[in-house]
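Exercise 7.
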Amino acid sequence: MTSISTAALFVPGRLEQFSTRVAFFIAGFTIAAWAPLVPYAKARIGLDEGTLGLLLLCLGVGSIIAMPLAGALASRFGCRRVLVASTVLVCLCLPLLATLSSLPLMVATLFIFGASMGALDCTVNIQAIIVERASGKTMMSGFHGLFSVGGVVGAASVAGMLSLGISPLIAILAVAVFCVIALLKAAPHLLTYGSETRGPVFAVPHGIVLFIGLLCFTVFLTEGAMLDWSAVFLSAQRGVETSYAGLGYAVFATTMTVGRLFGDPIVRRLGGPRIILIGGLCASAGLALATLVPTWQAALAGYALVGVGCSNIVPVCYSAVGRQKTMAQSVAVPAITTLGYGGILIGPAGIGFVAHASSLGLAFMILAVMLLGVAVSGRFLKG
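Solution. The predicted structure, written as tokens, is:
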């Protein structure tokens, strides 16, 4: 039976919505659980900062390569099989990331981990589009909100266990066991089919899909900037002690999470184009406030505005992908997800280049102008 005929016989309901939320939580939880392990890996293998940066790039490369394949596999074998296989691979990689001391083995494991995360991220968005469309309601912000919650819980739980003196291996094994239990709960109601198969596995995005992808690129670029440069800006430009500089990203992540968890009714009320307009203006104003007002309090308030502004733009974009007819979803979702990841990978390096040539403040203001472009572009996206 083909994916299309299966979809015609079965309409996803509340149980499928629940499983989609669990899958988003797992995706955020597992990628964030790796973050506290990075310093341990650096010390265990004996890496300098430059080599560590190249090592971490393997994760992103693996993700980008796997995403188009995940779309095709989900169409052929169904979302459930791809989500289960990718989650199991992630759980198998985590203990290795906590113990390996060989650089070549760590490179290979991070590549597989990144590929598994990319497949998981891509496929769960394909499932989310199908489930949202079947419900007739706006649900994408809530789905992505569970990814953000998973990220907060994953990073905090692993960091907390490590601070109590628990070894990295035991801490990450606890993460893996939790994820397997959550997967067993969700798996029976993950979709046994994917989106329609049409077109090649690899395709250059065009038309409305390219437009949506560029919006995602800019927002993910902003997220990458907050992750990698907000603490640097607070410590170097606003005199905040290094131990407290991480508050900048914490504020951003918190307001983004809250914005997504409460975003669905707001999106239903205002519509996608207005969400992009208001969100882009809010995020741009937040960056301008953080950059131009020379106090740390203004910077934190600005980061909060950036989080609120960016929170629902990407979910609105994924919902729009589910409505467009230019490209099949099995190709369109990997395309915009890949562009988004490209923003996370390229953005921080680009900001560093501008900061080196001029200043970090100028780099942030360039990003603020790009977000203004996102705001203006929202009117071209159908609600």
